[in-house]
Amino acid sequence: MPGEELAARVGEVLAVDPEEYRRRAGADADWIKGEIHDGTFDNPQAIVGLEYEFYAVGADGCALRRMPRRLLELIGFEKELGLHNAEMTTSPQPLNADGLLAQEAEVKSRLRTAVDVTRTEGMALVSDALWTIPPDGETARGYLTDSVERTVGDDERPIRVATNMSAAARYHAMANTDQAETAGMRIEAPNVSLSADTVMPESLITSIQPHYQVPHAVDLPDYFNYALRIAAPLLALGVNSPFFPPDLYDEGASAEEILAEAWMEHRISVFETTLNDPAAGAGKVRFPRDLETAAQAVDRIVDDDTIVPMPVSEGGRFDDRFAHFRRKHGTYWRWVRPVFDGSSRSAANARIEFRPIPAQPTVRDSISFQAAFAGLLESLTRLEHPVVDLDWEIARENFYAAMREGLSADLVWITNDGDRTRDRKRIYEDLLAHAEDGLSSRGLSEDAAAKYLYPLRRRVRQGVTPASWKRDQVAARLDEGSDLEGAITGMQRAYIDRQAETLLEGSFAEWIGSEGSGS
Predict the structure, then answer these.
(1) For residue 494, what are the contacts with CB-CB under 8 A and spacing of at least 6?
(2) pLDDT digit string (tens) for 242-284?
(3) Residue 519 has pLDDT above 80, yes or no
């Protein structure tokens, strides 16, 4: 889209009256709370879904590639923040043996087609948490910060447009609204400092997001509070982004310092520092507080800071009845997020989006996390597992410890028998046993449940995560005499090569040798 046309659309967004927008969202919220009370958002059983993000690279050399919009439409994927991004969303399915098989089959069938089509364009789709090789002939810093100003309207208001961002007005509006200072538009991490004029740095990262629709909307807080407690141990198993593109590291930082001080999941810090005002305390992207009622979840969304009050078109769908609320929810960024949605009254649902998990090396690993998350919410709530009594502050500390250290993090857990423990073996024995119990309670056989969870059990047993695999790859190359850029680039190419062999039919367990490595 030409810059002038995009800037004009951004100008239309900025013309929305923020007070009227908030008032309409509040009215929507009052209506939703009444419908929750009436059971409109209830389901006969739990239902699962998945959002799965990718980025594109060149088939030769593994450098980042911009994906043509026509290609996205051809493969049935959705655009995301960056021109290199693509997202798949699965059709919701009941949480049972057939439903999980359908989730995996849909991901594989659509992804297989996408892989074939992108290959003909000289590209490959990568499932990874953070890209490290910029486009050929460009730097990562330049790609993430390049922007231009265009003027719109009679007053010739300047509009800042990110060069490599998808042409969605709401993304660009974040840098131009009067509330733009609410977003940090920067990256701050060990040995990395980057400032930008837009939120484009967020496009470094990709994730998977399992969804769980609760049977009864009024019970959403019970599931939500358990989801907060399992966020840290599941994140610790899934960490996959210890390194940035080499040119983003601070001048003067040594390879040894970068290796030693790298966090295992920089994706968390990228999202938070890009979208949070450093002077705003908790920020919009954060580990959320416990919920007491479903109505409180609705109120939190309405009361959240509004960065971009988007124009709203109302139609005849069920969710058009609360269109302003849904728009506002789009910038309600929490690592565990409540959602009230549905295109029709019969499809209306209350669900939990679980956002901590980075994109994984293979489809099987991604489905393993989806199954574990759903199984845990089934089992922990049904058995009233005592981990829900873990102090919220400790659950939050666990989360950021997992971000920094992965499986080496000193996590606190309460086992099924009420014991407080920091022992990794006991934590994961209890966690994965309950995930398996939850899947079994939904009709999966013992063998089927064990198969879904095997990739995660293998990570625990070997003490290896995708992040530790990457760290070991970089460390080995540095030991062999490579410089930092060569070591990170070599690791990334090895990751993409291994993924090409295992993405659709293998798992990360096949990457792990007989000897474990640090996490």
Answers:
(1) 473
(2) 999 999 999 999 999 999 999 999 999 999 999 998 777 778 8
(3) no
Report the pLDDT averaged over residues 325-347.
94
Q: How far apart are CA 438 and CA 230, in angstroms?
A: 14
Q: How many percent of the chain have pLDDT more than 70?
A: 96
What span, in angstroms and rounded, lies between the C-alpha atoms of 482 and 480? 6
Q: Is 152 exposed, middle or buried (0-12, 13-18, 19+ CB in 10 A)?
A: buried
Say if residue 360's pLDDT is above 80: yes
Contact at 8 Å (CB) between 55 and 84? yes
What does the alpha-carbon distance between residue 332 and residue 310 come to, in Å, rounded to a whole number?
Answer: 13
pTM of the model as a whole: 0.95
Give dist(CA 392, CA 400) in Å, integer. Answer: 13
Dist. CA 413–CA 429, nearest whole Å: 11
Q: How far is CA 195 from the centre of its chain?
A: 22
- Interatomic CA distance for residues 166 and 443, integer angstroms: 42
Strand 186-189 to 192-195 pairing: antiparallel
Distance, in Å, from the CA atom of 441 to the CA atom of 285, rounded to the nearest integer, reads 34
The Cα–Cα gap between 354 and 107 comes to: 18
Q: What is the pLDDT of residue 153?
A: 64
Q: 387: which residues sit within 8 A by CB, 6+ positions away?
A: 226, 229, 230, 380, 413, 414, 415
d(CA 165, CA 82): 5
Say which residues have a Cβ less than 8 Å from residue 423's Cβ, sequence separation at least 6: none
User: Does the pLDDT value for residue 434 go beyond 70?
Assistant: yes
Tokens of 230: 């399992």
The angle subtended at Cα 307 by Cα 332 and Cα 78, nearest 5°, is 60
pLDDT digits (tens, 9 = 90+) for 192-216: 999 999 999 999 999 999 999 999 9
Q: What does each C-alpha distance from 450 to 120, 220, 446, 455 come to in angstroms?
A: 37, 27, 6, 9
The tokens of 13 are what? 């967004």
Instruction: Round to whole Å and give the CA distance between 420 and 389.
Output: 11
Cα(347)–Cα(244) distance, integer angstroms? 41
Residue type, 492: Q
